[in-house]
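W.,

You were right to be curious about this one. When I first looked at the sequence I had no strong expectations either way, so I just let the prediction run and decided to look at it fresh. Below is the sequence, 239 residues in total, followed by the output.
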Amino acid sequence: MLKYIPATDRHHAAPVSWLSSYFLFSFADYYDPNNMHFGPLRVFNDDSIAPNSGFPQHPHSEMEIVTIVLDGEVTHEDTMGNKTTIPKGEVQRMTAGTGLAHSEFNRSDKPLHIYQLWFLPNQKGLAPSYEQKDLDLLDSKNELMPIVSGQKVLEDVVYMNSNSTIYWANLKEDKEIEFKTFPIRNTFIYVKEGTIYVNGTELGPNDQARMTDEHVVQIRAQKDAQFILIDLPAAEANY
């Protein structure tokens, strides 16, 4: 079963002048008891941050936090002692575990565009940890490129403590991708740009598809497209 969610159904938040954020799930001032999570995917925020601004230090715990930089660069500092810059095309993962605090700033004179995703971890009480990797994800061509995963058999990915895998795809017009899955798994798709057909359903920029009880996900680009696909466990016991 495929649930199509148009871009217009996202919750838009602009709590301060420098931030424009679209929430795909309940977050902060947006609460919908029917849209709390999709499997272990708890938060997906599509954030634009103005130059020379950002989030001051704030705490997290018991969450796997993934940041994907689409434009600009993030300056990150945390209570683990990490002080890093995450440029366009790189991916960061923080295991908040028993607790940490961090700040995220756009110190440049250019706008910053990121996706930030939070996953419920597969176990609680983990020690906080950090990983950052340049994956050249924005240069991939006509394939589902794994970028973050809890599957240790995958190489050259950022590891997270979740039985989930995040894929990125740049799909040229008329090209097709087939993703094989299982009824015990869920599949989530969010389109950055272009137009794709997912099992016959059209998705445009910022549209979502949430799929359950599928065996195969067939994706064809009507126009050159960039999108994210997330493979997720359906049952909480498998998170």
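Here's what jumped out at me. The first strand starts at residue 2 and ends at 5. And, maybe more interesting for your project: The two ends are 21 Å apart (CA to CA).

Coffee later to discuss?

I.
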